[in-house]
């Protein structure tokens, strides 16, 4: 039996946003849990239960373009200014002054940016797998193209005709069969061999060519949990979330004047076996985040809060109590 609080809705920044809330309304500052791609507020089901039972107020929205939340048509409606303004609108709806923002994957990028753009609304930040980094000297898409080639999924997602979206949309269950698995056990030889260690990031083609009979990885989701994602994305398609990626150049162009220093208590939770956002990506974060604590989740791939839910929840509870009472 999957436990989730009742679904609620807020009018926020011109859209209708679906969210879940649990824990005592008197608890402050609450935790706002921000998911990544291709995920949903449902990705935080374990943390919603554990944190609320520990007496902590938690709020988990389906963000713009995902799940039951609106999916505006223009690609520019998914830039970082809209995504962070949506969260401000959610706080306003709930009459919350400040919150601790917790983000995984794309949600991690959003919560670090939330602090930079709306510092008076942020009490603390937790990045899960996604570090806070300096602004790159050139367009990040150019960097990814040079490093990984044109087949890298984020580079492919810049195609505004929606070709990558169609691959996922036509194979929804297959997409989650490809993504939501624990990584293969690491071979020591692969670490010594640079090519063997280099991940295949051509995700649309991986999904199109997927053969379940040859996949020996362990699923992260139960059949019932997987069905929640499959039902949601069968309804919405994948374009809303992919449009977040289509704004990476725009976000970079519009961030030149930002002060990148994070001046609130911060926690960086890293996953040992994440091929896309490895722990090494967080090296040197302390320069931009003076009040930073780091925590490594071992034997864990990219879907940290779903792969190691008890460990992630316990760390969030411990850090929140120690830093905020």
Automatic annotation (TrEMBL):
Keywords from the UniProt entry: Hydrolase, Kinase, Transferase, Tyrosine-protein kinase
Gene3D superfamilies: alpha/beta hydrolase (3.40.50.1820)
One annotated GO molecular function: cis-stilbene-oxide hydrolase activity
Alphabetical list of SUPFAM superfamilies matching this protein: alpha/beta-Hydrolases
Pfam families, alphabetized: Abhydrolase_1 (PF00561)
InterPro entries to which the protein is assigned, alphabetical: AB_hydrolase_1, AB_hydrolase_fold, Epox_hydrolase-like
The EC number(s) this enzyme carries: 2.7.10.2, 3.3.2.9
Transmembrane residue ranges: none
Domain AB hydrolase-1: 29-309
Domain of life assignment: Bacteria
Entry protein name: Microsomal epoxide hydrolase/non-specific protein-tyrosine kinase
Species: Rhodopseudomonas rhenobacensis
């Amino acid at each position: 039996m999957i436990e989730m609080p009742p679904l609620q809705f807020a009018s926020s920044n011109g859209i209708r946003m679906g969210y879940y809330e649990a824990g005592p309304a008197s608890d402050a500052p609450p935790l706002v849990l921000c998911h990544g791609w291709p995920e949903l507020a449902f990705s935080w089901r374990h943390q919603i239960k554990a944190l609320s039972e520990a007496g902590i107020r938690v709020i988990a929205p389906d963000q713009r373009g995902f799940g039951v939340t609106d999916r505006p048509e223009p690609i520019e409606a998914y830039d970082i200014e809209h995504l962070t303004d949506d969260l401000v609108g959610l706080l306003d709806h709930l009459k919350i002054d400040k919150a601790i923002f917790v983000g995984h994957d794309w949600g991690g990028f959003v919560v670090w940016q939330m602090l930079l753009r709306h510092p008076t609304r942020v009490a603390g930040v937790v990045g899960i797998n996604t570090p806070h980094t300096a602004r790159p000297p050139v367009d990040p898409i150019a960097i990814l193209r040079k490093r990984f080639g044109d087949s890298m999924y984020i580079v492919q997602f810049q195609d505004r005709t929606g070709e990558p979206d169609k691959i996922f949309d036509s194979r929804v269950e297959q997409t989650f069969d490809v993504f939501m698995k624990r990584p293969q056990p690491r071979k020591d030889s692969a670490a010594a061999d640079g090519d063997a260690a280099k991940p295949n990031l051509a995700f649309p083609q991986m999904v199109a060519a997927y053969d379940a009979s040859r996949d020996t990885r362990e699923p992260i989701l139960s059949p019932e949990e997987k069905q929640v994602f499959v039902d949601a994305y069968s309804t919405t398609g994948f374009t809303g979330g992919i449009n977040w990626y289509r704004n990476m150049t725009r976000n970079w162009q519009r961030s030149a004047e930002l002060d990148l220093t994070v001046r609130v208590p911060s926690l960086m939770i890293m996953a040992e076996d994440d091929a896309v956002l490895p722990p090494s990506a967080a090296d040197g974060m302390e320069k931009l985040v003076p009040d930073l604590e780091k925590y490594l989740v071992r034997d864990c791939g990219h879907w940290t809060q779903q792969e190691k839910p008890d460990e992630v929840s316990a760390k969030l509870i411990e850090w929140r109590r120690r830093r905020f009472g």
